[in-house]
């Protein structure tokens, strides 16, 4: 079914479709977005395939979720804000707020689902501890870059030439394999680790009392792991109450007295540790296609990724994953899991832990001498301030609406004074460069201190604010709504995802524009 007219009353999700040698191809980023929509059973978005040629929906019927209504739109008919971004992208009903980039879009789908169905613990848990899963942008987080960009890109490169003579594992896949070999650190894991120690001791006693030959006692490592503490905790997280398993009996005294440093480490069950998260949703369509290709063209390479195979098998224990795979036409299959190795000498160094930096203090900045000026004063050098050489550049802040003033952006009065001085210069320079009907882009816009002033003082220009921090951009949108601005738009995305045309661009150090 094809629709060329967009519904302005619904949020729209736009996905990329390629035409390669006459065949319609669904990129991995699009497959991942569709997989998440099916998993969450989210019906809040009208889904559009952006294609150069008609017939994409029919050609991809076997790869599209049967539970979703998917339409197609010609690339030249895409809304201007969507056309300015790399896909996937979500456009809000008013057409002036766009979210672009895989991680940003997927997190928005989850948040939208949780807002409408707060009882869906299986969906809310996808965002992980403190809702930070894939929140840090790829520009600063090596883990987000690996999952969002490097692995999908590596798999697509492989699929374009799967029979390459010198086939080798991409670095991105080796990094993931190495990550799965690292011990898991989770909040308050002491009880789980003691429970694991007690299980190990019980298992040791049972082995001593068993007179069967060693060969008959061997078990599939995968099944053994599934019966362990880690897999039990992972499955319990997806249950109704979402609580990890707690031993019904207290550990024996010899277990309770063991030092924390001597307790056994917890092993990875899923990509980020014990629990199924958005990262697993992102990786599954990629790894699935990669494993199919390896099995057909280079099965010997599978021996190099035992932990990745183990992860793939464990996902098939989750009913939600099986339901979604069936809905999306993905046929998951079983592989013989090699014995995992504890170390991988050929793998790159492990990724640094992507721990969230401490939350900034809520106290307002207390103004005072700048550090440089203080040092000059200590050496008897006094700074002499002179009037601005271009007095006409100074805006009449008292006559402007309150929402234009930087003080509306939650900053101290002292800092707001400096910000207004900064804005005086920037606005004056942009006004000299911009003509009516020009598009002005405020890169790394933060709370919109510059962009909002530009949109207010240049009503005949279109102003686009680009920022990857959702909280800042939402605050900017609220301020622009108070002013009733109709010439301003917002894009939540990394700079890499903006590909639009513009006449004037403005950028500041991000620390100075919050």
UniProtKB/TrEMBL annotation:
InterPro entries: Glutathione-S-Trfase_C_sf, Methyltranfer_dom, SAM-dependent_MTases_sf
Stretches with biased composition (Polar residues): 199-226
Domain of life of the native organism: Eukaryota
Region (Disordered) residue spans: 197-227, 346-366
GO CC terms: cytoplasm
Gene3D superfamilies in the record: Vaccinia Virus protein VP39
Methyltransferase domain span: 436-495
SUPFAM superfamilies found in the cross-reference section: GST C-terminal domain-like, S-adenosyl-L-methionine-dependent methyltransferases
Record family assignment: Belongs to the GSTCD family.
Name of the protein this chain belongs to: Glutathione S-transferase C-terminal domain-containing protein
Upper classification of the organism: Eukaryota, Metazoa, Chordata, Craniata, Vertebrata
């Amino acid at each position: 079914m094809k629709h060329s007219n967009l519904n302005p009353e619904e949020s729209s999700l736009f996905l990329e479709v390629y035409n390669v040698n006459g065949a319609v191809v669904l990129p991995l980023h699009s497959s991942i977005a569709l997989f998440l929509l099916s998993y969450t059973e989210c019906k809040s978005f009208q889904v559009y395939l952006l294609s150069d040629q008609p017939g994409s929906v029919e050609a991809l019927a076997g790869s599209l979720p049967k539970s979703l209504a998917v339409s197609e739109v010609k690339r030249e008919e895409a809304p201007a804000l969507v056309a300015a971004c790399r896909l996937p992208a979500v456009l809000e009903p008013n057409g002036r707020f766009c979210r672009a980039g895989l991680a940003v879009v997927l997190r928005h789908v989850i948040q939208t689902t949780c807002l409408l169905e707060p009882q869906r613990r299986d969906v809310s848990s996808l965002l992980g501890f403190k809702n930070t899963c894939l929140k840090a942008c790829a520009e600063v987080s090596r883990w987000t870059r690996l999952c969002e960009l490097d692995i999908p890109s590596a798999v697509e490169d492989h699929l374009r030439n799967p029979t390459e003579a010198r086939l080798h594992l991409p670095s991105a896949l080796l990094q993931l394999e190495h990550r799965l070999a690292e011990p898991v650190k989770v909040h308050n894991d002491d009880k789980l680790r003691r429970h694991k120690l007690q299980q190990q001791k019980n298992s040791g006693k049972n082995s001593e009392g068993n007179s069967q030959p060693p060969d008959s006692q061997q078990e599939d490592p995968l099944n053994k792991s599934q019966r362990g503490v880690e897999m039990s905790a992972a499955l319990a997280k997806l249950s109704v109450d979402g609580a990890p398993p707690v031993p019904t009996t207290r550990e024996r005294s010899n277990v309770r007295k063991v030092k924390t440093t001597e307790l056994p480490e917890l092993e990875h069950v899923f990509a980020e540790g014990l629990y199924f998260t958005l990262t697993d949703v992102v990786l599954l369509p990629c790894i699935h296609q990669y494993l199919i290709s390896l099995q057909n063209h280079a099965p010997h390479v599978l021996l190099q990724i035992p932990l990745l195979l183990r992860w793939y098998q464990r996902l098939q224990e989750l009913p939600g994953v099986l339901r979604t795979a069936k809905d999306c036409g993905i046929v998951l299959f079983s592989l013989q899991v090699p014995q995992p190795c504890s170390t991988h000498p050929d793998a790159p160094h492990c990724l640094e832990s992507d721990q969230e930096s401490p939350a900034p203090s809520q106290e307002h900045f207390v103004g005072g001498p700048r550090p440089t000026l203080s040092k000059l004063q200590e050496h008897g050098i006094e700074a002499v301030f002179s009037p601005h050489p271009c007095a006409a550049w100074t805006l009449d802040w008292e006559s402007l609406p309150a929402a234009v003033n930087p003080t509306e952006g939650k900053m101290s009065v002292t800092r707001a004074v400096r910000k207004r001085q900064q804005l005086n210069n920037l606005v004056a320079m942009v006004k000299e460069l911009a003509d009516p009907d020009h598009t002005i882009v405020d890169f790394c816009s933060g709370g919109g201190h510059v962009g909002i002033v530009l949109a207010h003082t240049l009503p005949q220009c279109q102003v686009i604010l680009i920022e990857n921090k959702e909280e800042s951009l939402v605050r900017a949108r609220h301020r622009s709504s108070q002013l009733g601005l109709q010439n301003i738009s917002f894009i939540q995305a990394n700079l890499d995802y903006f590909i639009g045309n513009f006449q004037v661009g403005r950028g500041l150090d991000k620390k100075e524009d919050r």
